């Protein structure tokens, strides 16, 4: 005759063993996940690392001009200010830029693009080295304060009207956006070839009765390293 108590104890023991095994596996998985997060904290951007960078470019007064951060974009919209919304930057640490102008896709205005200068991207790129994921940094862009262009009434109107807007010298006010055309080659070349022109957004800095000055430098960049690849 079988001892029922013994069978019950054996069944209970088997179940407890299975629970214990599952518990050990669960602890291993959790431990592995924690270790991965622990080690990723110490991972830093090094030459060759492909990095996704959330960024905001500011004017001399500290107002956001161009940002990939939707929160910054929305906050400026609610204040009545217009910041251009960009895609995040994807940069390879240590990369050298052979082109002077690098177009950056904008999400707002939809279908538009802004042009970054190789010198700006090089300074942001240099700041990435040694940064950890989710780390933030402020980069002062050298030379941005000199990026200004003065135009007569006729010159200004010919530029902005060329982009199909009703905006002109008379209606322009300090702080208004101005789409400028920039090119690495002269507008008129000896061989009559048409140069490639890029759009660079600037803002009206000063205005007199017959002249207007547009600032197209971005003195400060706030960056957050969102992701570090190989």
Structural description of this entry:
With 230 residues, the chain is an alpha+beta fold. The chain folds into two domains: 1-42; 46-230, Chitinase A, domain 3. It is 30% helix and 32% strand. The protein has four helices and twelve strands; from the N terminus they run H-E-E-H-E-E-E-E-H-E-E-H-E-E-E-E. It has helices at 4-42, 70-79, 118-128, 153-161; strands at residues 50-58, 64-67, 84-86, 89-92, 101-108, 113-117, 136-140, 148-152, 177-182, 198-207, 211-215, 220-228. Strands 1, 2, 3, 4, 5, 6, 7 and 12 form an eight-stranded mixed β-sheet that branches. The protein has a four-stranded antiparallel β-sheet with strand order 8-11-10-9, with helices on one face. The longest helix is centred in the first third of the chain and has 39 residues, at 4-42. The protein is globular, with a radius of gyration of 28 Å. The N and C termini lie far apart (68 Å). The model is unreliable at 32-38 (pLDDT under 50).
Keywords:
eight-stranded mixed beta sheet; Chitinase A, domain 3; 2 domains; 230 residues
